[in-house]
Fold CoA-binding domain-containing protein.
Amino acid sequence: MTDAEISQILTETRTIAVVGWSPNPARPSRRVAAYLKDRGYRVIPVNPGHAGEKALGETVAPDLAALAGEGVEMVDIFRRSEAVPEVVEAALAALPGLKVVWMQLGVTSDAAATMAEAKGVQVVQDRCPAIEIPRLGL
């Protein structure tokens, strides 16, 4: 993935589902979600253990299927690599406007990437948008 492609993704994307969001302020998923919200993105937390709670001005979703009508363009995944194919499969099934699957630092899955790319969805692996935005001057 080139810097130009990442810049385009981060410039054009407006609505992001953060899978594996945590209410714990020490967790990277919470810090990154808050950073993205502060940058003007609509960020929808996804965590079945906290479904129905309020965070980032949104109701925490139990799963991606609950976001079918929310216009999610990007799924930002904070889960172990082995869980990613299941997340991507659910995203592809539930989110018709999905454009990007983003896997956080240390998270990769060639199987999930192949599945997403076969549906025309861009894939970013092992990167963090909260690092990429300032690095690219966005």
Remarks:
- Helices lie at 3-12, 28-38, 84-94, 110-118, 129-135.
